[in-house]
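Budget justification aside, the reviewers requested a transparent look at the raw inputs and outputs of the sequence design task funded under Objective 1. We therefore reproduce one unedited record. The lines immediately below are the C-alpha cells for a 550-residue chain.
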C-alpha cells in the first residue's frame, strides 16, 4: 500500500513539474515564447518596411529590410525586390532616401560626383562646392544656435579632429556644417540640439572642445554610413546626446548593427529605450533584439518596454511541441502575456506541489521513524523541505537571476591622457560596489538554508516534546538529535569553504564577506536554537527526572 501511495505522489509531482515547466514566466527575464505571442498579434517587419515604402521613404525602409534579413524574417527578399523596383522607378527619391528635392541646390554636385545612385550624406556634403554653398546659406540664419555651431570652425586647439582651416580640416568642417544644417531645419530633436549648442558654446568660450568634437564624430560616423533620409530619421530618434552616442557607437560595431539599432528605435518610437537596453546588456542586446524582431513589431516593443533579458528554454519548447501539451502550453503563454504576475504565482505553486509530492513519495519508500504524532510532524518536515527545494529551484533555475549589473562603459572616449585614465580606472575600481547581485543572492541562499534547518529542528524538538514518554527517554532522544541540532554549523562552514573555493575556479566571484557570512548565519541560528529552545527544554527534563527519582 505504501508503495502504491509513493508511486501516486511521484506521478503527481512529475505532473506538477511539467505544468510549472510550461509556464513561460520568470522573475528577471522575458521568455521568447511570450515575445512571439505578442509579436503574432501585430505587424511584421516586412509590413513596417512596406509601409515606409508606401510613404515614399525607401531609405528608412531599406534599414528595416536589412534588420528583417538579419532576423531571417520570411519574405524579406520580396521587400528588397520591391525597394529595388521603387528606386529604379523614382531615382530622384532614391538619391536622398526620401522626397527631398529642396536639397538639390546644396548637394546636386555632391550627388553627381560620388556615391552612385544612393550617395551617403558624407558623399553629398564633403565636396568643397557643397560645403561652400551650405556655409553661405547657414550664415544667413538668424538662429543663435546655428551661429554658435559655425563659430566652432574657428577653433584652433582641437583634441581629436584637425582644425577646419588646417590642411586636413574637411572632416571637422563637414561635421560642423551638417550639425548646423540639422539644427537650422529642425531635423535634430530640440533636447539634442540644445545640448549640442551648449557644448559648442562652451568650446567657443575657451573650454575643452572634446565633448562637442565627440558629437561631431558621431555625426560623421552616421553620415558616412547612411543616406539623407536614414541619417535624419536616425538622429531624430535620439532624445539626448548620450543616447545618440550610444546608438551610434553600438550600431557601428558590425555591418547590420546600425539597421538593427535604427529599426528597434523606430519601432519603439524613441532611441532612449534602445540605448538603455544596450547599456544594460552590451554583449547580448543585439542578438536579443534580432530575436525579438523575428517575432514582429509588438514583440520588439514588449522587450524594450520591460527592459529584461530574453530567455529561450529549449526543453520547454520540446514539451510544448507534444500533441497533448501544445494547447495547454499556448494557454499558459497567453496567461503569462496577459497576467504575468498570476502566471508566476501559478508556476511557483506548481513547483511547491511538485517538490512536496516528490519528497512525500520518496519518504514513503524509505524506512521511517516511529512517532506518536503520526503523519502530522512528518508532513511539516516534508513541507519545509519542499519549500527549501523551491527556493533552491528559484535561485538556480530562474534565468538571469544571478546576473550582475553590467558595467557602464562610455561608448567613445577621445584623447584622454594615459595617466588620468589609469588613475580614473583605479578610482572607479576602488569605488565599485562590493554587494553585487551574486553576493546578495548568495547571502539569501545561506539565510534560507539556515532558516530551513532551524525550522526542521524546531519540528523535531516539538515531536520529542509531545511524545508521551519519560523524561529520561526524552533526554536520550535529545542527545540523539544533537548532531542534527548542530547541522547549521556544519552547513555554515561548508558554505564558507565553498565561497572560498569557487573563485579559484572562476565559477563565481563572491566577496569574502559573503563567504564568512555563511558561518555567521550558522552560528546565529544554532545559538538561537540551543539557547532559546533546546537548553530550557533540557533543563526542564533534568528537573523532572531528578524530582521524579526523589
Amino acid at each position: 500500500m505504501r508503495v502504491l501511495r509513493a508511486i501516486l505522489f511521484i506521478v503527481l509531482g512529475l505532473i506538477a513539474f511539467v505544468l510549472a515547466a510550461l509556464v513561460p514566466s520568470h522573475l528577471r527575464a522575458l521568455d521568447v515564447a511570450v515575445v512571439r505571442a505578442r509579436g503574432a498579434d501585430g505587424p511584421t517587419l516586412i509590413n513596417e518596411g512596406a509601409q515606409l515604402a508606401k510613404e515614399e521613404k525607401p531609405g528608412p525602409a531599406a534599414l528595416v529590410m536589412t534588420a528583417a534579413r538579419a532576423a531571417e524574417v520570411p519574405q524579406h527578399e520580396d521587400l528588397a525586390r520591391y525597394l529595388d523596383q521603387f528606386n529604379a522607378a523614382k531615382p530622384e527619391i532614391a538619391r536622398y532616401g526620401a522626397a527631398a528635392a529642396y536639397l538639390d541646390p546644396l548637394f546636386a554636385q555632391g550627388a553627381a560626383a560620388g556615391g552612385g545612385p544612393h550617395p551617403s550624406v558624407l558623399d553629398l556634403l564633403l565636396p568643397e562646392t557643397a560645403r561652400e554653398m551650405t556655409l553661405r546659406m547657414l550664415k544667413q540664419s538668424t538662429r543663435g544656435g546655428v551661429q554658435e555651431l559655425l563659430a566652432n570652425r574657428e577653433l584652433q586647439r582641437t583634441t581629436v579632429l584637425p582644425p577646419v582651416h588646417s590642411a586636413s580640416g574637411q572632416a571637422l568642417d563637414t561635421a560642423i556644417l551638417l550639425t548646423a544644417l540639422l539644427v537650422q531645419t529642425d531635423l535634430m530633436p530640440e533636447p539634442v540640439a540644445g545640448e549640442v549648442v551648449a557644448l559648442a558654446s562652451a568650446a567657443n568660450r575657451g573650454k575643452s572642445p572634446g565633448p562637442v568634437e565627440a558629437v561631431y564624430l558621431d555625426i560623421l560616423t552616421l553620415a558616412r554610413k547612411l543616406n539623407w533620409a536614414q541619417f535624419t530619421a536616425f538622429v531624430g530618434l535620439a532624445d539626448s546626446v548620450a543616447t545618440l552616442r550610444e546608438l551610434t557607437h553600438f550600431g557601428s560595431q558590425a555591418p547590420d548593427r546600425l539597421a538593427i539599432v535604427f529599426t528597434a528605435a523606430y519601432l519603439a518610437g524613441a532611441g532612449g529605450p534602445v540605448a538603455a537596453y544596450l547599456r544594460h546588456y552590451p554583449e547580448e542586446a543585439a542578438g536579443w533584439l534580432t530575436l525579438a524582431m523575428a517575432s514582429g513589431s509588438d514583440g520588439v516593443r514588449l522587450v524594450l518596454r520591460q527592459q529584461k533579458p530574453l530567455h529561450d528554454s529549449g526543453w520547454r519548447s520540446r514539451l510544448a511541441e507534444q500533441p497533448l501539451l501544445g494547447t495547454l502550453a499556448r494557454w499558459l503563454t497567453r496567461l503569462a502575456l496577459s497576467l504575468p504576475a498570476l502566471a508566476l504565482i501559478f508556476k511557483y505553486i506548481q513547483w511547491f506541489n511538485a517538490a512536496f509530492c516528490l519528497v512525500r513519495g520518496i519518504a514513503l519508500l524509505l524506512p521511517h521513524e516511529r512517532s506518536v504524532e503520526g503523519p502530522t510532524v512528518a508532513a511539516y518536515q516534508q513541507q519545509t523541505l519542499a519549500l527549501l527545494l523551491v527556493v533552491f529551484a528559484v535561485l538556480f533555475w530562474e534565468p538571469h537571476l544571478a546576473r550582475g549589473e553590467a558595467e557602464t562603459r562610455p561608448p567613445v572616449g577621445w584623447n584622454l591622457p594615459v595617466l588620468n585614465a589609469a588613475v580614473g580606472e583605479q578610482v572607479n575600481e576602488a569605488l565599485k560596489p562590493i554587494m553585487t547581485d551574486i553576493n546578495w543572492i548568495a547571502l539569501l541562499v545561506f539565510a534560507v538554508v539556515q532558516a530551513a534547518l532551524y525550522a526542521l529542528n524546531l519540528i523535531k524538538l516539538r515531536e520529542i516534546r509531545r511524545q508521551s514518554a519519560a523524561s529520561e527517554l526524552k533526554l536520550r532522544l535529545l542527545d540523539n538529535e544533537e548532531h542534527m541540532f548542530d547541522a547549521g554549523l556544519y552547513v555554515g562552514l561548508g558554505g564558507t569553504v565553498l565561497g572560498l573555493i569557487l573563485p579559484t575556479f572562476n565559477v563565481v566571484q563572491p566577496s569574502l564577506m559573503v563567504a564568512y557570512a555563511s558561518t555567521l548565519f550558522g552560528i546565529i541560528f544554532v545559538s538561537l536554537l540551543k539557547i532559546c529552545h533546546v537548553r530550557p527544554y533540557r533543563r526542564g527534563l533534568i528537573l523532572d527526572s531528578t524530582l521524579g527519582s526523589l
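The chain has 29 helices and two strands. The beta strands are 30-31, 310-311. Computational costs for records of this kind are itemized in the attached budget.
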